[in-house]
Amino acid sequence: MVERSAWPSVAERVLRSEGLNISLINLGSSGYRSAQVLRLIETYVLPNNPDFLIVDCLVHDSAPLPGDHQRAWGPARELLFQSRVYRLLWLAVATARGENTGPLGTVHIEQPLSPIGGAGNHEAIAQLAAARQIPLLFVDYPFTGNPIVSYAPMSQLPAGVTVVAATAALIATGAPASRLFLDANHLSVEGSEVVGRAVADSVRAELGL
Questions:
Q1: pTM of the model
Q2: Could you tell me the residue ranges of all domains in the chain?
Q3: Domain over 3-206 is classified CATH 3.20.20.20
């Protein structure tokens, strides 16, 4: 699916059509887990002083990172983090170890609750955003099923953070999952339109508009 059809682009288009001078920058990468998203936010997003953050990760996807994640990671791996080859190699090794089962795997669902609340690194992301006083939105990670299900339900996300009810928005269309998804968890153009509009609604509410 081309970038302009992805839900961040849809949300940006909707908000701009309403006269808002707003840009949504999509830094998502298929295969990233919440630990990598946390590092991405610390290393590349926060230095650019964003007005808000939107995070779309399933819960129980990776163990919580300890301590000061950015300093613990080191400058060498920060450079490697920018390399697509490095990310592909990382995913290959994780798969060989049985740590990355792909979108149809269930390892992340069967893992025990994490010590910081059962949400992988979502709690750390929420704490980071709160410390910088940056509004944060979690998307509830829709996943194909009968019915469509959420892999980041509100009950398993940190309290006090706005959650975009993307799963409910998809279900409300009445369309079959085969129309809304390209595969287990990647949205079609139609599905992205629905989620993008749900995200736009939440951003508008977050900004008090």
A1: 0.75
A2: 3-206
A3: no
